Amino acid sequence: MEVRVLFILLSLFLQLRGIESSMAMAKPGCQEKCGNISVPYPFGIRAGCYLDKAFEVVCNESQNLSNLYSVEGFQILQLWFNSMNVLIDDRTIGWCQEAADFVDPHLCVHYALNQRFSFSHSANKFVAIGCPFSAFITGVGMPNYTSGCATLCGIPFSGFPFSPLTSAADTCSGFGCCETNFPRDLTSFDMRILKISTLNSSENNVLFATAFLAHKEYPTHKLYQQSDKTKIFPVPVVLNWVIAHVTCHKAREGRNYVCSQNSDCFDSNGQGYHCLCSQGYQGNPYLHNGCQGSVCFFRGCY
């Protein structure tokens, strides 16, 4: 009896391994990875491998180093199709840096993403470093929506307007550094900075002002430990993506509906939809026959 049970379990395990190994993430004949980064469809590296130009990516391979970029130029650190997220390096898009003589008030950054993508409000935060100044982020096309925070110099400081945060336990709470959330996803935005006048005249000269978007889990204190505070360092940011700017209902009525067999369609929080394999299936829901059946037993699926 025990031998039979072991045989059944081994057979189920081998079936699972077979399903996992046979699941394709990229289209047949297409490059599946750029270095260590998987490139699942609807993304693709060359013509015929992506759903449309919005999902085209570029793999830059040189001197044993592979980097993945969007056609818009930002570096991609990770792609996920189940959570509809892209992890990117923020150096190329979201940094606002100004020296002491910046015009006040000042539009520092304007950025607009491909309409299929948006900056995730649930996964990112808006950060400002320096003092004393205020930083604001405004959603373009949403004139009533602005979020921001203010920094003061405080004590102690040693001639440089950056709070001496040294560990993850330190908070970015308004002295030399501030951070805030923004309540909705942004496809395009403006960043502005504004000097603050204080009662202490020695604090009224802004030596440097920096504002940027960052993943909420990014330890802001790391930026304070850099010797060159004026340098732009890599900071991770999460983008959301959708297949198209239509609802599932509208998509099903058209010819370009992309959710494959054994998958379900979900409307995104913004405008658009995405696909997930149905319960009991796993794989890539955007590929033909991309969702493969799991093995279910003992009232569960594994």
From TrEMBL:
UniProt xrefs under Pfam families: GUB_WAK_bind (PF13947)
Topology of the protein relative to the lipid bilayer: Single-pass membrane protein
Signal peptide boundaries: 1-21
Annotated Wall-associated receptor kinase galacturonan-binding domain residues: 30-78
Molecular function terms from GO: polysaccharide binding
Subcellular location(s) of the protein: Membrane
Keywords carried by this UniProt record: Signal
GO cellular component: membrane
Domain of life: Eukaryota
Name of the protein: Wall-associated receptor kinase galacturonan-binding domain-containing protein
Originating species: Escallonia rubra
